[in-house]
Amino acid sequence: MTNERYLVASYFVGVTLAVGLGTIVYLFLRHPFGSLADSVSRKRRSSTLKRLFPLGLLFPALLGFVSVSYQSCTRHTYEEIVQNRSYLVEKNQQQISSVLLHILFAVLFWDVIVFLILKYGRKGRNESHLPTVDD
Amino acid sequence: MSLQLSAFLTLLVLSLAVPTILFLLLRTSLIDLLRRTLKVQAGITFYSRSFLLILFLSALSAAIGTTFDLKQDSRFMEYVWKGAEGVSSTLERTLWFVAVYVVLITILVATLKVKDDE
After folding, report:
1. Nearest CA to CA, how far is A128 from chain B (Å)?
2. Per-residue pLDDT tens digits for A62-114
């Protein structure tokens, strides 16, 4: 495989991987987040939060991927970039690392949102229909 | 298998072992703490799962970002040093993110506990 073909293939595999990782994290947290969002007093706010949740994980994953630039101080042109395979592999590693880091920041952001839901958004413990630990 | 790939895979295994051990050590206490504070099963599940994600994502992002850009004739110990550098950045990043998580959980426990006491 030529370096140019490797670049094209790895770029699209990278995008798929970023979306896949974002989706896996979303599926992993979807049920507990959905139950918590339901505890928000207004139904409209709950459904808005549930719709925003996948976007709030997929966008950071994609942002992490596209934030890595192939151009650097020593390589400006396309020819210079595709010249060396190890440089392309290094950039792929940076892309995956950046995707993971951005998802991590997104998870922390949603942790804060859940904290705010628990603090301000609850109907009140006695009125809540959420299953409690005692149940 | 090239020495470069073996070194990278070793680093990857080590960076998976660290969050696994940390999670197994802290899981029970974290769930107990959350159970006493939140009293809502979904909240406990959400925060324990996000802790697992924080551990693994921080460790893996540091490990995968490490490149073994050494010359072809590099000696074995040069790969070991580079691997140690990768382990160092993995542990450092994991430590920072666990610290952020601990701060968040502390605020959560302090705030909701006060609300309950009232």
Report:
1. 10
2. 999 999 998 888 888 888 888 888 889 999 999 999 999 999 999 999 999 99
- How close A93 comes to chain B (CA, Å)? 5
Q: What is the 3-state secondary structure (H, E, C) of B70-98?
A: CCCCCCHHHHHHHHHHHHHHHHHHHHHHH
The answer to whether A37 and A46 are in contact (CB under 8 A) is yes
Tally the residues of chain B.
118
**Predicted-complex ipTM score:** 0.89
Give the CA dihedral B20, B24, B25, B29, nearest 10 degrees: 140
Residue numbers in A near B54 (CB within 8 A): 104, 107-108
> What is the count of residue pairs from A and B with beta carbons less than 8 Å apart?
105
The answer to whether B87 touches B60, Cβ cutoff 8 Å, is no
pTM here? Answer: 0.89
Which of these, B79, B86, B90, lies nearest to B55 by C-alpha position? B90
